[in-house]
């Protein structure tokens, strides 16, 4: 399942520093190519301590975590929707991603000039948000013109789409993002192929100075309040420290983390936040060859989970054998779980739970 998060932000907010830290940390992961695959695209591991714990019970040749694609999108400037800066290229790159990680500057540094002359993360958020809304408004207006002809011929689907477009257009014209607009499932489906920028789920990343770790500062608190009000996520990081951490071996990180009151790199919280933002969860397969985290959407059924491994598994799905980490802790091995009658047999309607350890039986 290939899903991507676009890192966006104004110039000089630390966006590329965070991207470099993410991909550098990823490059240290054995068994999977977590690294930059393009100048601005990287595959990043989703940190999951459950993998290590499963490995303590099941000997294996390799451990493969889940992954998220991170896209570093060129810095946005005011007027991007009208072609300023990289303008249309910037907006097209965001359109291709599934969610937005918005980096906002919550630190003061006389050596790093702010594009607007002073630090104000809420103003910065509103600049970016407005550009996304303008771009969405243009996309909606273009679709309205295209759909009107079909609607005039009596096409019911076109009429239904026009109704939804009118609702979205009125909302955007008030300067409100499309995320804040409540739509039915059917209405949302009609809009899906428009890939509205301001409807994408969002995670705010507050880049703070090292002395403001781990809890942030007054600027990041304002961002947190905004995020809570609109149902968005928020993570506090210090890009400078994260970049330093990404260059250290795992056993060397402890001292630096402790000095800043961190139990793990903040980037771990950030990547997991992106994963949750996309409505994703992990299930595991575990055996002698590999222990692996597989990515599925929350609410996926057992056949859909099997299909992530191979489409044949979904097509020929018979049943799944399921247990969890709690059972592994209690019984010590998969064979002991089976002997105790605790290995569950689940059918086609089973909804996969985060952390399930699964084997699939199929026939094609």
SSE arrangement:
Layout: E1 4-8, H1 15-27, E2 36-38, E3 41-45, H2 49-57, E4 62-64, E5 67-72, H3 87-95, E6 99-106, H4 121-152, H5 156-173, H6 185-191, E7 202-208, H7 218-230, E8 233-237, H8 239-246, H9 250-259, H10 266-277, E9 280-286, E10 290-297, H11 302-309, H12 311-315, E11 317-323, H13 325-331, H14 334-339, E12 344-346, E13 357-362
Parallel strand pairs: 1-5, 1-6, 4-10, 6-7, 7-8
Antiparallel strand pairs: 2-3, 3-5, 9-10, 11-12, 11-13
What does this protein look like?
- With 364 residues, the protein is an alpha/beta fold.
- The chain has 14 helices and 13 strands.
- The chain has helices at residues 15-27, 49-57, 87-95, 121-152, 156-173, 185-191, 218-230, 239-246, 250-259, 266-277, 302-309, 311-315, 325-331, 334-339, and strands spanning 4-8, 36-38, 41-45, 62-64, 67-72, 99-106, 202-208, 233-237, 280-286, 290-297, 317-323, 344-346, 357-362.
- The protein has a seven-stranded mixed β-sheet, with helices on both faces. A three-stranded mixed β-sheet has the order 4-10-9, with helices on both faces. A three-stranded antiparallel β-sheet has the order 12-11-13.
- Strand 7 (202-208), helix 7 and strand 8 form a beta-alpha-beta unit.
- Helix 1 packs parallel to helix 8 (239-246) and helix 4 (121-152) runs antiparallel to helix 5.
- It starts with a strand and ends with a strand.
Summarize the structure.
The protein has 364 residues and is α/β, with parallel strands linked by helices. 43% of the residues lie in helices and 20% in strands.
């Amino acid at each position: 399942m290939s899903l991507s998060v676009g890192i966006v932000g104004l110039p000089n907010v630390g966006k590329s520093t965070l991207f470099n830290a993410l991909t550098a940390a990823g490059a240290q992961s054995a068994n999977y190519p977590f690294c930059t695959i393009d100048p601005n695209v990287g595959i990043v591991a989703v940190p999951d301590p459950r993998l290590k714990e499963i490995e303590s019970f099941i000997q294996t040749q390799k451990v493969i975590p889940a992954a998220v694609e991170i896209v570093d999108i060129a810095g946005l400037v005011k007027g991007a929707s009208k072609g300023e800066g990289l303008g249309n290229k910037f907006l097209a790159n965001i359109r291709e991603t599934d969610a937005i990680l918005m980096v906002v500057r919550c630190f003061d540094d006389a050596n790093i000039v702010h594009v607007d002359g002073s630090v104000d993360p809420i103003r910065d958020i509103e600049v970016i948000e407005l550009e996304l809304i303008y771009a969405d408004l243009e996309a909606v207006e273009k679709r309205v013109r295209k759909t009107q002809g079909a609607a005039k011929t009596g096409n019911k689907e076109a009429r239904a789409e026009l109704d939804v477009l009118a609702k979205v257009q009125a909302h955007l014209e008030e300067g409100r993002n499309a995320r804040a607009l409540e739509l039915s499932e059917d209405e949302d489906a009609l809009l899906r192929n428009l890939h509205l920028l301001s409807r994408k789920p969002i995670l705010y990343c507050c880049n703070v100075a090292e002395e403001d770790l781990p809890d942030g500062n007054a600027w990041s608190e304002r961002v947190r309040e905004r995020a809570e009000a609109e149902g968005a996520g928020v993570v506090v990081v210090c890009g400078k420290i994260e970049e330093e951490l990404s260059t250290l071996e795992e056993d060397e990180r402890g001292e630096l983390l402790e000095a800043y009151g961190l139990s793990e790199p903040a980037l771990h919280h950030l990547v997991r936040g992106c994963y949750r933002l996309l409505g994703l969860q992990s299930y595991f397969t575990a055996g002698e060859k590999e222990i692996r985290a597989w990515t599925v959407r929350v609410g996926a059924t057992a056949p859909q989970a099997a299909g992530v491994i191979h489409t044949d598994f979904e097509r020929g799905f018979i049943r799944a054998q399921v247990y969890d980490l709690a059972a592994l802790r209690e019984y010590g091995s998969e064979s002991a779980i089976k002997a105790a009658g605790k290995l569950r047999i689940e059918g086609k309607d089973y909804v996969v739970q985060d952390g399930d350890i699964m084997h699939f039986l199929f026939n094609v």
